[in-house]
Design a protein that fits this description.
By secondary structure, the protein is of the alpha+beta class. Helices cover about 30% and strands about 20% of the residues.
């Protein structure tokens, strides 16, 4: 029984956070300070974001836009990545 528990723990620890080669390549292509939106298994209508103000700046087809938090930004279909903090006015 002890060996099964050990194998389970090792599998869970090493399996968490494993990235594919494609994910590592896409992460390396991002500018420093940029974060990728996680893939969503639910629709935007089924997602509930916390009402926390932690602004992020995301680039959309219409230009840069400040969102109240990363959850709200990643709900938008044309947002793939973002950076922490509000967008700078140009």
């Amino acid at each position: 029984m002890r060996i099964y528990f050990t194998v389970l723990v090792v599998t869970l620890v090493t399996g968490c956070g494993a990235e594919t080669a494609a994910e590592k390549k896409s992460l390396a292509a991002l500018p420093p300070g940029q974060f990728i939106c996680p893939p969503s298994s639910t629709s935007a209508e089924d997602t509930v974001c916390a009402a926390v103000y932690d602004p992020v700046c995301a680039t959309t087809a219409q230009g840069s836009k400040t969102y109240s938090n990363s959850c709200k930004a990643c709900l938008e279909p044309d947002v793939g990545h973002y950076k922490k903090g509000a967008c700078e006015d140009s």
